[in-house]
Amino acid sequence: MKTEIRNKYTEGRIFNSLLSLALPIIFANILQTTYQLIDTFWLGRLGANAVAAVSLSFPVLFLVLSLGTGLTLAGTVMVSNYKGADNQKMVDFSSSQSVFLIFIISGLLAVLSYFSAGPLMNIIGAGPEIYDDSVAYFKVSSFGFIFLFMFFIFQSLMRGIGNVMLPVYIILITVFLNLVLDPLFIYGYGPIPGYGVAGAAWASVITQGISAVIGIAILLRGKHGIKISFSSMYFDMKSLRKIFNLGFPASVEQSTRALGMTMMVIIVTSFGSEIVAAYGIGARILSLIVIPALGLGIATTSLVGQNIGARKIKRAEQVANLSNKIAFFGLTGLGIILFLVAEPLTAFFIPNDPDVIKDGALFIKIMAPSFGLLGVQQVMNGTFNGAGFTKASMLISIMSLWVVRFPLAYVLSYNTSLGYEGIWWSFPISNLIAAIAGYIYFKMGYWKIRAFRMRD
């Protein structure tokens, strides 16, 4: 059985391997976004303040989660490398060490977030009408950090060995469970009191707890390619240092993205509510495009890592090249379709506001042709991550967002005749520069040197 799994990703058709990994990952990401949709649906029945309280908490929650979830990438990289080398002992040991480190970090973040909920909500400007609800939601959500991170590391480890379907089944179950628990804890029923906004957080914490318990139980049983053990969960400084060195750049990358999203919103809000609405529509479209781009990037990380572990650097390069082509042509094609239907698509979200429809459609038309370049950037990041060169991914992402997109949006919108359209143009320009930078660095081949170090 071990040989079959190894050969599936280090031998045979690369295209089949990529799709078999990427499609379940994309589906899992789509399922995970439904948590927010379900919460918004039920909270919307409580009123605008309830939705506002959660919306205000989300950027801070996302930032905290980014700091921890970046470290789970190290699990994917290390496990894929050892799996490709057919070193089951190190697969199990590095997995145990990863679970141990993530558990400690998630516990610290949970405690810190819980006690800083009030000050954080004050900093981001929670008004008196939503302050109590936003603090309550944030505090309850903090309880779930440990569960959430435990499932994230389980998911990352499974992806590392190529077992991508098992997490999908668990997510599917918990999404349906959350659909039932949300109204139960928000409104109450029978002996269960209604907790209002905090009820949505409690529903999520319960489903996160169930998924975490299932995931860790699977890892402890060892029937699905990885067997962790409590005896291997101790401070092995060599392993923990390696996990931290691989994962910390990813944490920085994700947290700077979260901050960058906030900064872009600040620029947009200065142009009025209609532009904010138009930006919101474009941002929703972009978030949908990012899902397949990220899915392909994560699949590339796993495949590149396994082939490096199997001492097949040339095949790892072939994986990256093919993944690049799929991302560029596939997402460019999708971008062209969105370009053609930009106006009716915008009208679907806001049907009775011609100005917002016009501005939102323009944003989509300017941004859509560069979706293939966004896909290339994610694949390049996935390649560098698979080679253990997570600092390269971090630097490219920081350059794209903080050196190019944000300053360009500011300069073009405030200092040229483009006005708010300058914000729209910052997206394709930053996508182009990041894709070119990533691809040139890929062709320079330094990641191969890092791959040999990672392998050895």
Automatic annotation (TrEMBL):
Tagged with keyword Nucleus = no
Record InterPro entries: MATE_fam, MATE_MdtK, MdtK-like
Q: Where in the cell is it found?
A: Cell membrane
Membrane-traversing stretches: 12-31, 51-79, 99-116, 136-154, 166-189, 195-220, 258-279, 285-305, 326-350, 362-380, 392-411, 423-442
Coarsely, its chief localization is membrane
- Keyword Membrane applies: yes
Top-rank taxon of the source lineage equals: Bacteria
Q: Which topology term describes how it sits in the membrane?
A: Multi-pass membrane protein
Q: What Pfam families does UniProt report for this protein, alphabetically?
A: MatE
Q: Which GO terms describe its cellular component?
A: plasma membrane
GO terms for biological process, alphabetical: monoatomic ion transport
> In its UniProt entry, what is this protein called?
Multidrug-efflux transporter
Its ancestry begins with: Bacteria, Pseudomonadati, Bacteroidota, Flavobacteriia, Flavobacteriales
